[in-house]
User: Fold this.
Amino acid sequence: MDFDPWDPAFVADPYPAYAELRARGRVLWCEATGQWLVPHHEDVSALLRDRRLGRTYLHRFSHEEFGRTPPPPGHEPFHVLNANGLLDLEDPAHARVRRLVSKAFTPRTVERLAPTVRRMAGELVSGFVAEGGGDLLSAVAEPLPVAVIAELLGVPEADRGLLRPWSADICGMFELRPSEEAARRAVAASVQFSAFLRELIEERRRAPGEDLISGLIAAHDEGGRLSEQEMISTCVLLLNAGHEATVNTTANGWWTLFRNPEQLRALRERPADMLSTAVDELMRYDTPLQMFERWVLDDVEIGGTVVPRGAEVALLFGSANRDPARFADPDVLDLGRQDNPHLSFGAGIHYCLGAPLARLELAASFGAFLDPGVPPLRLVREPQWQEGYVIRGLRELVVAC
Assistant:
C-alpha cells in the first residue's frame, strides 16, 4: 500500500503502509504531498529535538527568502492566531512564552482540577448508561475535554457550546492541502474565537479569578509578560490540541479495545493497576496525531540523504509508534506495556504542555466506564473514519450498554 493520506482505505489503516515505508528507508520523498517522510522512531525522536528544523521559518527568513509563497491575505486571522501559539513559535519567543504560560498552567493547576474532571466524567458516563448507550464520541468523548478546558479557562457555562465548533473549524487547516472552504471556516472561527477571548480577558483584567486566563494575565518576569495575542493563541491552542487529541484517543481507544477483547477483559479486572499504562498504550497503538510537520532551516542529513534548507519534513508519529526497532511486538496491543516511549505528545521544546491534563482526562473517562457498577459496552456497528489524516479519528462510535 502506498502512502496516500487522501485514500479512505489508507486513513482507516495506515499501519501496513508505514511498515513498507520503514523497510524502504529512513527518509523518503513523497511527490504527492511535497514532503520528506520520516517513518522511524529514532529519527522522528531526534528530529523533534533538532534545532535545524522548525515549526516556522519566519523567525529567520521571509517567505520569499525561504522559497515559499506567502499565504493569501484573507487567511491572515488564522495565521496570526496560529503563529503566536506555543506549537508554532520558535526560540527565543517560544522559551519566553512557555516560561510565562508555565507560571499559570502548573502541575498544581492540573492536580486541583482532578476531582472536577473525575466528577464530570462520571456524570457523562452515568447519563450515557441511563440512555442505554448511543454515540460515545458525541455523548462522552467530545463533551468532557471541552468542559474541562472551559472550566480551566473560566468560560461561562452558557458559552461553552461555542468552543467545539470553533476548534473543529480551526483544526481543519492542519490537514494536508485544506480546501478554500476549510480555510474560510478556519478564518471565521479564528476571528470569532479571538473576539470572544478578547472580551473574556478584559473581564478578567477588571475582576481576576482562579482561572487560567487570570493566571496568564498575572504571569510576568524579567523578560516581560504575555501580549494579549499570545494569551489568546495560548487559550485556543489548549482547546484545539488538548481537545482533538483527547477526543480521538477516547473513541479510537474504545474501538481498539473492542477489537482486542482479551486486553479489555484484563483491563476490566484490574483497572486500578492497568489504567495508567493502558492510556499510554492506546495512544501509542493508534496515534491521534499521525503527522507532525517541520521546516528544514539548515541542510540536515538523514540516513545518508541530505534534506535541503527550504524543504518540509513529515514526522510520521503513527509509524514511529509502531517501529519494531523500538517497541517489542509493536502491532500487538499490550495494555501493561512498561517500556513505552511513544511520541504522541511530541518531544523537545514543543512537547505537549497539556500532556498531564490529557492523561488525567483519559484516565477519568476510561475509568468511569470501567467502574464495576457500569455495565460493559457493546459495539453496535463498525465505525467509519473521518476524512482527515493528520488528526485522525472516527465519525462516531455507536455502542450499547
Remarks:
- The longest helix spans residues 228-258.
- The mean pLDDT is 94.
- The chain has one domain: 8-400.
- The chain is about 50% helix and 10% strand.
